[in-house]
Amino acid sequence: MNNLIVRIDPIICADMFLAAEICPVEISGLAKVIRKGNEFIIFGEPMIPPQKCSGNGTETDFDPVAYGLWENEMVRSGQAQEVVEFRVWWHSHAWSGVGFSLKDEGTIRQFGDFTGETWVFVVVNKRGDIIVRVNLCENNKLRPVYINKICFSVPTTKESLQKIKEERKERMKAIVDSTVTITSREYVIRRNIDD
Ligand SMILES: [Zn+2]
Question: Cα of 80 to ligand 1 centre, how many Å?
């Protein structure tokens, strides 16, 4: 048993699920987190870098080059302090179940090796499932802790979350359209058949 609690701001929660719902394949991004003792609060606007995903929808990757370019730009524009708040990596598994695949574990190791800091990892899907884990950095080793207690940072109902999603939907559509490239032709063919 652990006593870690993750609280999610309804806006970033809405954005992660909107990204999952809108994007036909997997999508991945970062979010901000602050730690207060045993509590982690995920908040703010998501960072969704340009990314490629193959047509079967299961091969999204967090591109370290795209991340590096973004980080450089943030530092150059005087936002270095903000960069270190982005310690949540979230991604969607589209229609598949939530959990951490072997590929995800590889990506998670990269983040740990890269920063040597505590990170929060979130997987969501189109069905509205979510799993959250914190990798605590202790003695230079990242230790995964699965979070049983996930709640909103402010009182939120199903209806109020839905309202936030509706307000932010068009904006997220534009972000998904401009950042996600689907690399396989099969997807296009399949989509035409499905349509
Ligand atoms: Zn995954």
Answer: 28
